[in-house]
Amino acid sequence: MWSAERRGPKCGRPVRDPGSASHSAAIESIASRDTDPEASRFASRILRELERRGFHRAERQVIIGDGAAWIWNFACEHLPRAIQIVDIFHARQRLFDIAKAIYGPGTDMATAWGKQLCDELDRPGGIDIVIDEIERNPACKKAAAYFRNNRDRMRYAEFQKHGLCVSSGVVEGACKSVIGKRLKQGGMHWTVNGANAIIALRCAFASNRFDDFWERRAA
Questions:
Q1: pLDDT class of 79 with cuts at 50, 70, 90
Q2: CA 36 to CA 174: how far, in whole Å?
Q3: How many domains does the chain have?
Q4: Does 159 map to a domain?
Q5: Which of 3, 78, 99, 170 is the most buried (most CB within 10 A)?
Q6: Global pTM value
Q7: Is residue 161 part of a domain?
Q8: What is the mean pLDDT of residues 64-88?
């Protein structure tokens, strides 16, 4: 999902322009073999939407993800100019998961430790403090790798200073309201083709392209 954003008049944080979001989704994989002559169906879907939205003409490009390697692999290959950002709420959730593993779920120490490191994420250079603190516990080496591998994508103070959004919440919300709300009602069972047909309609409607969708289908 893509949207246009501007800086709010009071807080200086990005504000999504009404009606600026567009949606494109399907149950399909981004995976492809190196020998495949064309990009996968999902990758092609993303590239079509980028072209439609004029992404390549944007002076500043940003891609936000949850930290999964395939997202950054796609970005490096197709969007080399884009600034890569890990969604800050995914990063915070990871920290609290680590805190629970160290101090136990629901304990005061877990809550205090998790909050302390979440606060560090918002400070300039705080990601290095976060990584060092996690690595103090030998059992958390693997968990620390997530933050170390995404270190440059977690410079939240710097990103926000330049008016960039650091959250993928609008995408998460769209997954629930545009797709999940329709497909996950009680007693529903879907084939992949059936679900994709409904997803296409929902995305077209949410993107204000419903009439265009049917005109293309008729043609």
A1: very high
A2: 31
A3: 2
A4: no
A5: 99
A6: 0.82
A7: no
A8: 92
